Amino acid sequence: MLKRTGLLRVAFFLVLLVFIALLAYKIYLIFFNDSLEALHSEQIERIQSHQMAEDEYGFAVIGNIRNSIGVFERQIIPHLNESDMEFMVSVGNALRGGGEDNYQALYGSLQKLNIPYLLTFGSKEYSQFGSVRFYDMLGPYFFSFSVHSDRFIFLDTTGKTPLKWQLSWLEDELEAFSREARHVFIFMAEPVLLEHRDRLSEDGELELEPVFVSKLNDLLDQYSVEAVFAGSRSMFDRQARGDTQFLMTGGGGGLVVGDGEDDHHYARVMVGQEGANIEPVFVGQRQSEIVRWLETSWFFIYSLFYVGYINFILIVCAFLLVMIRLYKALSAERQYYRDYRIDEETVVSEPLRVMMFTNNYLPFIGGVPISIDRLVRGLLRQGCQLKVLAPSYGAEARPDDVVMRIPSLLHWGSKGEFRLANPFSPSIARAVREFRPHVIHVHHPFWLGSIGLFVGRRLGIPVIYTYHTRLEHYAHYVPIPGRLFRNLIAHSLVKRFANKCEGVIVPTRSAEEYLHVLGVTAHILVKPTGVDCSAPDRVSVETVESLRRKHAADGATIFVSVSRLSQEKNIDFMLRAIHRARETCAQPFRLLIVGDGPERAQLERRIQEMDLDDHVTLVGAVAPEEMTAYYLLASAFLFASKSETQGMVILEAMAAGLPVVAVRASGIDDVLEDGVNGYKTQEDIAEWSARLLELLEDPARREAMSRRAVDFAREYEVVRISEDVADFYGRLLALQQRRLQNT
């Protein structure tokens, strides 16, 4: 614990130092950094005012600098500063991209250059809205100037400037200066020589329209041009056409490939009376992958200072949040072991008042409503006071002081069984004020569950969440892409909601393990829904015999399954397994499927298609109090669902003495001991149907498993479960009050 606190303290102060450094540097950039505008005008003035020898002078041409620090700034610039070059020209792609951070970084590198410089407008200068920055910082995208009697012309090959306009302007320039000027030099980011373009077309680097290229080549053939420079590839290449030299030079710092003339370099141009002598100058060594990665990382950090004021404020806020989080982690005292100084029984001197929020409840028949109803009845026997906030279903069975119905906004389903309660109903706030709960217990991580969480936080009382449902298996009900919901949203929703609660109740160890894997840190109680083991004693023999005459008058062995008729319950698998078992067994048997749902019509068609009318009956919905009679009618319980967090109906069946055959899955694995109180198989039709036949054909084995099933179910008696849940409420309430006292 001390070691963890020390590490958190170090992390906190490191973040604080980074935050102060970022803020200080940003202030420096705002108030002290140079304002950059029209740099080309300044650089041309420096070139023209410099006393250069007219008979011979030199300049450097470089391409593909790409904000290089290791090559351009640290190797090429020192070499140029020591050379006899009068100025430097970049033929495009001097930047990694057109962002403010890249322009500022390039300016910082060029400040170390002792000679004037000019930049050609290329694709990297244009990208990321860089054209605005280029114009503000440097000047127009195409321009020209003279040195002595030599003419220097810069073109825009990105398409930012209309190409037709540039051709007209270039023709005027060449018409005016090709005869009067001693030499004409043209600079562009993309080459126009066809031999060069053929090389680049393989890499998909060409943007100029063929029509423009053709007309530009016609102009170059018509007028006298000394040299045309381009730099769109990291290589050096020279071609001649007539009296004009066409050069590609792109080794200024970007990635190079190949050998020899593909290394880092610049072109050294010596201008004299007779023409221009152009030779490559190879400088420096190639960067390793590690050095290049470090340089990229540095540019990411550097870019933080040029992302604009709004984004900068967001970055500062993010650092503040981290600082606050670390501070809370440092200052909060952690107690991971149970605090035995707290007397959980004397936290409140009156009966514990528990308010529950649920998105569905009786008379809707389902695992969650039945589970909640049993817990409510068990807690009432413990002396707790309960108030359950649930949707209104229009015609409730009877008035209930415990359950308060929330008006529904809408309903759907074949019988309107799905209700969406109004979370903004004034009756919720009124009920909270009148009931004054000590504890909030929510049963869903959304809708009314979110309202319950809000109420608990507002009142400063513990919120407990029961993880009933594997949401990822219900993607087919949600109007968003299934994979997105199954693989991301469902798990994220459960994790975020559970971590906002003081405690989580899960029905099985499998569910507990799942929450730990997700990263849930709330207190967890493993308690399944209790079963009423005395329920079979209250069912008369006449009731069971009446059902037998109705469903098995021919003396067939009865199997039963209780399940909502929906896709996630995997009932189609069970039908296919029954079909296989029928083909290999002469002994008569019949499966009764108790429950209703949206897949009923589809399942009825499947039963007819497989000719299972004499072996499978869809009983429909049965009231919870009548369910036990169906268990007592059967010889075994069959189940195939893989979406359960617990096997509640399996425990009910065991309490009635039924061995179980089920598909092994979470929830099932915790309550079913293979070969002891039933069988759990892989989702394999042959294996599942073989286990079914073993129970069907071996009454002695079935009887032995039946006795062990009853013994197992007694461990989950509802009275025991509700006692443990009430104790969990008390412990969390005590911890909450202790925390409030310490603050």
UniProtKB/TrEMBL annotation:
Molecular function terms, GO-annotated: glycosyltransferase activity
Organism domain of life: Bacteria
Keywords from the UniProt entry: Membrane, Transferase, Transmembrane, Transmembrane helix
Domain Glycosyltransferase subfamily 4-like N-terminal: 365-534
InterPro entries tied to this protein: Glyco_trans_1 (IPR001296), Glyco_trans_4-like_N (IPR028098), Glycosyltransferase_grp1 (IPR050194), Metallo-depent_PP-like (IPR029052)
Domain Glycosyl transferase family: 546-709
UniProt KW Acetylation keyword: no
Family matches, as Pfam families: Glyco_transf_4 (PF13439), Glycos_transf_1 (PF00534)
Coiled-coil region list: none
Transmembrane segments: 7-31, 298-324
Name by which UniProt lists this protein: Glycosyltransferase involved in cell wall bisynthesis
